[in-house]
Design brief:
4 strands, 171 residues, single chain, two-stranded antiparallel ribbon, two-stranded antiparallel sheet, 13% strand, flat, alpha+beta
Length: 171
């Protein structure tokens, strides 16, 4: 199973747990007339549903552990012309950091060179201390770099294996 398949399976497991939880709540409390058997109004006993949920919880934990392990496997990659050993987790962190820096440069590239401020009847002037064009160019460069990292992550999501076997009775 590949990383992207594992992500989908984790989501399916979570949805199944939510569905079973709802089903368990419905089975746990029924309204009956005096003398009726409440078990005739439920498809499954709450205890049986709980057992299914515990099984899926356990399998989801196993899959998440295998997923984390796969995300931390090192592999060679070239970043900015430099050969490095990295992992998907490190690439995700790098992409976040680069996007945060790109946001800073993009935001400040749009600042006016001078802005008059008035606070408590006192005027001040806010003046930028950088070249707006340089900041705009840096923002574009960082966004492009972040996009390349995201494309690498997407590629490796469909290449890197997760060591997990889906049990036949999972769903």
């Amino acid at each position: 199973m590949k990383l992207n398949e594992a992500k989908t399976l984790i989501s399916r497991m979570s949805k199944r747990i939510n569905d079973l939880s709802h089903q368990r709540m419905i089975s746990s409390l029924v309204e009956i007339a005096p003398g009726e058997n409440p078990m005739e109004y439920i498809a499954e006993k709450p205890e049986d549903i709980s057992q299914k949920m515990l099984f899926i919880y356990d399998e989801r934990r196993k899959l998440r552990d295998a997923f984390r392990e796969a995300n931390n496997k090192k592999f060679p990659i070239q970043i900015n012309g430099e050969e490095k050993e990295t992992s998907i987790s490190e690439l995700i962190d790098l992409a976040k950091d680069v996007r945060l820096e790109a946001y800073y440069f993009n935001t400040y590239s749009k600042k006016l060179p001078k802005t008059r401020l008035t606070q408590a009847k006192q005027e001040t002037i806010q003046v930028i201390t950088f070249d707006r064009n340089d900041y705009a160019a840096k923002s574009e460069q960082l966004e492009s770099f972040a996009e390349n990292i995201s494309n690498l992550i997407d590629h490796y999501d469909s290449v890197i294996d997760v060591d997990y076997t889906v049990p036949d009775n999972l769903f």
